[in-house]
Amino acid sequence: MSKPAVDQNKCTGCGTCIALCSEVFEFNDEGKSHVIDEKGCGHGCDCQQAVDSCPVGAISLSE
């Protein structure tokens, strides 16, 4: 299963990933996205779509 990660230095807080996968991502106190459930990918959420849709390339998936 792929594990998502958000690069806090790149994230602009646009919310695209949260709109696509609210089971996996949410806003942190700084208004940027962060991962709340690494196991959500593939279980009701297409994390690859979040990776592909991030306008600044802040999301990555690792095995």
Automatic annotation (TrEMBL):
It comes from the Bacteria. Gene3D superfamilies: 3.30.70.20. Coiled coil: none annotated. InterPro entries: 3Fe4S_ferredoxin, 4Fe4S_Fe-S-bd, Fe-S_cluster_ET. Keywords: Electron transport, Iron, Iron-sulfur, Metal-binding, Transport. Residues 2-30, 32-63 form the 4Fe-4S ferredoxin-type domain. GO terms for molecular function: electron transfer activity; iron ion binding; iron-sulfur cluster binding. Ferredoxins are iron-sulfur proteins that transfer electrons in a wide variety of metabolic reactions. This is Ferredoxin. It comes from Candidatus Komeilibacteria bacterium CG_4_9_14_0_8_um_filter_36_9.
